[in-house]
Design goal:
Radius of gyration: 19 Å
Structural class: mainly alpha
Strand content: 5-15%
Number of helices: 6
Distance between the termini: 13 Å
Helix content: 25-40%
Number of strands: 2
Strand order of the largest sheet: 1-2
Largest sheet: 2 strands, antiparallel
Length: about 160
């Protein structure tokens, strides 16, 4: 069976996009990675409607990417902050890869909004693909993609 004959129902890219593949969701995750936790702050910074924001936050909590943590400011009612779970933090390399691609191909002359650097040596951070045996950075020509155990013929 070849790739075009395989069903993509169980494709991890497709399943991931089902959860986080919408623009506003990725922008919420970008902000959460950068320390935004409160509804009003997401709303003000991203600029989407309250209804859309509520829907996306609800879906991210339901998918266990964000969790709610109650807080209360003096004189106000109790509200929830949204914090990344381990599953949410595991999306950080994806966001970094999107940022890296954007800096290379979609950025204006003014430069990036964030300059992400390694704390220990101050070198810029970049996303690379490597094999699990920790060989050097790989290119698409240096890998072989085979159908996995979850592949089955298209219906």
């Amino acid at each position: 069976m070849e790739w075009l004959e395989a069903s993509t129902e169980n494709c991890p890219v497709q399943r991931t996009l089902d959860v986080v593949g919408e623009k506003w969701t990725l922008l919420i995750l970008r902000d959460a990675v950068n320390g935004v936790r409160r509804f009003d702050d997401f709303h003000r910074h991203i600029g989407l409607s309250e209804a859309v924001l509520s829907d996306r936050l609800r879906k991210l909590v339901s998918a266990d990417i964000l969790k709610t943590v109650p807080y209360q400011e003096a004189g106000s009612r109790s509200r929830n902050e949204y914090r990344l779970t381990r599953k949410g933090w595991d999306l950080w390399p994806v966001l970094m890869a999107l940022s890296q691609w954007g800096e290379a191909y979609a950025l204006g002359a003014e430069g990036p909004v964030l300059d992400v650097r390694h704390t220990d040596c101050d070198a810029p951070v970049r996303v690379v693909v490597e094999c699990s045996a920790e060989h050097a950075t790989l290119t698409p020509r240096e890998v072989t993609a085979r159908l996995g155990s979850g592949a089955h013929p298209r219906s």
